[in-house]
Amino acid sequence: MEVIVPPAILDHDLRAAIYDRVSKDTRRDATSVRNQHQATQAACAANGWLIAGTYTDNHRSASRFATRPREDWERLLEDLGGGLYDVLVLWESSRGDRELEMWARLLNLCRRRGILIHVTTHHGTYDMQYPRGRRALADDGVNSAYEVEKTSHRIRRDILVNARRPSTPGATSRRGRGSLRT
User: Fold this and answer.
1) Distance (Å, rounded) from C-alpha 12 to C-alpha 91?
2) Neighbour-count burial of 101, counting CB atoms closer than 10 A to its CB (0-12 exposed, 13-18 middle, 19+ buried)
3) Which of 10, 49, 71, 89 lies in the 20 to 30 Å Cα band around 175?
4) What are the φ and ψ backbone dihedral angles of 128, each rounded to 5 degrees?
5) Strand 124-127, strand 87-90: pairing
6) How far is Cα of residue 2 from the mean position of the Cα atoms in its chain?
């Protein structure tokens, strides 16, 4: 387990907030957020943290292309700012935010309030008051934003390529956006 905080900080009971999110839940069965939650709960148990709050945004994007609000994310930020928690537990960094400005807002908030961030897939707990932990999670934010931009670029490229192709009468688009009838 990579721990980027002094062990003395982890020696007492901490109030944990868990945040689970998935962009698309096409089956509408919440499997992904349920699986994330099991992993984050296990991390809290392994560290002796009290789960004091759970926040879930199922079928909600965290990118700049999001069309639906993330109510629990906004509520979590308010509660973190209000001092309700000592540690934020995420399954992976990208579950938080894929917009660099918003991710930095979270890191700054946690630094100001002394809130630790535990990333289950890293097996690590980070203290934003220490440069190494802050850099690790800042890099994750850059990587998450980069993945969004790469995906957007590929989608735009595919749309342009498909628009230039002669359509076949009666064919439908690969993205399911309706008929390409001519």
Assistant:
1) 22
2) exposed
3) 71
4) -70, -5
5) unpaired
6) 20
Rounded Cα distance, 96 and 33, in Å: 13
CATH code of 6's domain: 3.40.50.1390
pLDDT at 182 over 50: no
Which helix (H) or strand (E) is 68 found in, with range?
Answer: none
Secondary structure element (H or E) that encloses residue 22, with its range: strand 15-22
Residue 113 belongs to domain spanning: 2-148
User: How many domains does the chain contain in total?
Assistant: 1
Per-residue confidence band for 96, with pLDDT thresholds at 50, 70 and 90: confident
Q: Are 83 and 110 in contact (CB under 8 A)?
A: no
Residues present in the chain in total: 182
Residue with structure tokens 């991390």? 43
Q: CA angle at residue 60 from 55 to 103, to 5 degrees? A: 70
Contact 130, 101 (CB under 8 A): no
Q: Residue 175 is encoded by which pair of tokens?
A: 């993205």
* Whether the model pTM is above 0.85: no
Comparing CA positions, the residue from 132, 147, 53, 51 lying closest to residue 99 is 147
